[in-house]
Amino acid sequence: MTQYQTPAQQKLDDISLYINGEFVEASSKETFENLSPFTNEKINLVASGDASDIDQAVAAAKKAFHGEWGQLKLEERLGYVNKIGDLIEEHSEEIAMLESYDTGLPISQTRKMIARSAKNFRFYADMVKSHLYGEAYQVDDEFINYSVRKPVGVAGLITPWNAPFMLETWKIAPALATGNTVVLKPAEWSPLSANRIAEVIDQAGLPDGVFNVVHGYGETAGAALVRHPDVPLISFTGETTTGSEIMKNGADALKQFSMELGGKSPIVIFDDADLDRALDACTWGVFSFNGERCTANSRVYLHEDIADDFIEKLKQRVDNIRVGDPMDPNTQVGPLVHRDHYESVKGYLDLAKEEGCEVYSGKVPEEYSRGNYVAPTLLLNANQNMRVVQEEIFGPVIAVMTFKDEDEVIEKANDVRYGLAGYVWTKDIQRGHRVAQAIDAGMLWVNSQNVRDLRTPFGGSKHSGIGREGGFYAFEFYTETQIIHVSIKDHHIPQFGK
Ligand code: NAD
């Protein structure tokens, strides 16, 4: 069997919490095992934080917010943010390896994600400088009113395992750049790179308490963060059902929420499309990141005139995708993150058969039988009523359907509870815009794979999310707008009781 060639192979230290500038064990001394997706063997132990660790982390973050961090000059604060980006870049190869080792994502793909993660910090340092400003309202000759945008306080960040480092930095960068302090609760299945970001931030020398990481289970550490009265902001990325649970738990404390949730995104391919490019995009869009991708095009709608040929080509791609060791730069699909998730995806393949699909899968080489491998799979003859079309499978699996005309495909594309992303392929420019605008989703791409400029809004509609991350949209969440009304001339004041 191929062996990992990674710094992670030298025995990895067990993982601590990072609270108030120190790496510490959980107050309960509890730990949980972190397993390799490639072998299902233990990688290391992770400190399992609970409410008492969350209390300590929040107290440290609150103190830093009102203390040293809150009093820094803007240049100094952004200097730290840029420094984090520099350090990530410096250690990017090592972080990419840890990420692949921990999640099973192919190294060629994690390398790109880590590069992007470093950019998140530089980008938000620049954005805060150039775009975080208030407005002034001159009201006749009586008032000047102006708004300021202030950091809110302690931001609670709760993240998933599917692109952990990228998604964590995506939240940490705007939270810190706008002047908040942070308590991060990373996903329990992918703690390695979350620990590495704590080390990086420690090395960058941020004041104690500005950034804290509490590993642990969602129901304990995560829920305690959500309920904590001193955490006004909860930015969550994860499953829709978890998001809904979190909103219920935070309701009494009237938290502000940013919710990036699940998806079941359509790719619509018309008969006039550039079919070679559409095939590349469709294949990459669902099988990259092992299919564990929130914006994956997990439903393809093919115009009936091109469907047979397109399906034949999809089958060839599925047969040829290189399934393998995530540390091998040639691997295109690696093992799923955890045995439980593997069982869940496999369960959907069984369900697809029961529901009447022809399930067409590629091959997983025999040598990888210990890992959580699911071969790239097509669910042929799928239809809208099937659970495999309605529910997020979150693996390398695509439901394949056909359509006759534009109205029909718009209706089908919208006939799910999710609304995260959508993709339209056609050479008819009017139709491209029209169909994109008719699909109820937060993000649409026309004749394009999922390429995103950091300035653009990211987020979903319907059950895929609330609010937008990215660009200056993140400021809506991470800052509080305050309006100051100043009288510049004596104005009328009613004289009650005079
Ligand atoms: P998940 O909802 O199971 O877990 C996400 C995080 O929430 C984890 O850190 C978990 O410990 C924590 N958590 C669980 N229960 C909690 C509770 N009661 N209170 C507080 N925290 C709790 O999601 P996952 O399986 O880690 O990630 C996969 C999901 O994430 C998919 O549905 C995917 O579509 C979604 N996702 C969405 C986006 C997006 O931007 N919309 C991006 C990536 C992933």
Topology:
Blueprint: E1 17-19, E2 22-24, E3 31-35, E4 42-47, H1 51-66, H2 68-71, H3 74-90, H4 92-103, H5 107-131, E5 136-139, E6 143-151, E7 154-158, H6 164-177, E8 181-185, H7 192-204, E9 211-213, H8 218-227, E10 233-237, H9 240-251, E11 256-260, E12 266-269, H10 275-287, E13 299-303, H11 307-320, H12 339-354, E14 358-361, E15 377-380, H13 387-390, E16 397-403, H14 406-414, E17 418-419, E18 421-425, H15 429-438, E19 443-446, E20 461-462, E21 465-466, H16 473-478, E22 479-487
Parallel strand pairs: 7-8, 7-10, 8-9, 10-11, 12-13, 12-18, 13-16, 15-16, 18-19
Antiparallel strand pairs: 1-2, 3-4, 5-6, 6-22, 11-21, 14-15, 17-20
This protein binds nicotinamide-adenine-dinucleotide (NAD).
Nicotinamide-adenine-dinucleotide is lined by residues 158-162, 167, 185, 187-188, 218-219, 222-223, 226, 237-239, 242, 245-246, 260-263, 294, 392, 394, 420, 460, 464-465.
Bound compounds, each kind once, are: nicotinamide-adenine-dinucleotide
Mean pLDDT across the residues is 96
Kindly estimate the percentage of residues that lie in beta strands according to DSSP. Answer: 15-25%
Q: Sheet bearing the most strands, described?
A: 7 strands, mixed
Structure commentary:
It is globular and about 85 Å long. Helices cover 39% and strands 20% of the residues. It has a seven-stranded mixed beta sheet, with helices on both faces. A six-stranded mixed beta sheet has the order 9-8-7-10-11-21, with helices on both faces. The mean pLDDT is 96. It starts with 16 loop residues before the first strand and ends in an 11-residue tail after the last strand. With 498 residues, it is an alpha/beta fold. The chain has 16 helices and 22 strands. It binds nicotinamide-adenine-dinucleotide. The site of nicotinamide-adenine-dinucleotide (NAD) has 31 residues, from helix 8 and helix 9.
